[in-house]
Amino acid sequence: xxxxxxxxxxxxxxxxxxxxxxxxxxxxxxxxxxxxxxxxxxxxxxxxxxxxxxxxxxxxxxxxxxxxxxxxxxxxxxxxxxxxxxxxxxxxxxxxxxxxxxxxxxxxxxxxxxxxxxxxxxxxxxxxxxxxxxxxxxxxxxxxx
Length: 145
Description:
Layout: E1 2-15, E2 18-23, E3 26-32, H1 39-51, E4 55-56, E5 62-64, H2 66-69, E6 72-77, H3 99-116, E7 120-122, E8 130-144
Parallel strand pairs: 3-6, 6-7
Antiparallel strand pairs: 1-2, 1-3, 1-8, 4-5
Helix pairs in contact: 1-3
């Protein structure tokens, strides 16, 4: 699994004009599932999401994690993150999980996140979503398991 994470002041996801997920300060994680990903990958990714130190401490250094700042976590599925872009001018999605497997893995990640952290919001798997964010920094990292 991989997640493109962005440190945000706030972020939200709308579907058909309705806000389905919203957080204030925290992390927006765009999550891609590869065909070979399993629960172990999801568990490792969640550990990184909760513990990756991208928030400033008292001295302005990136030493604090999501839990330390009591931030929100917004999880949004995005299969395009696992596209192969090394050849040609059109992405290949052959390494992406089939939709059924991708949804099972994304749902598992969300379920585990909600058990581990009280402030979790999500988009909707497979939906046409409009994501709005204020990137704080900007700070953006690609996490992989």
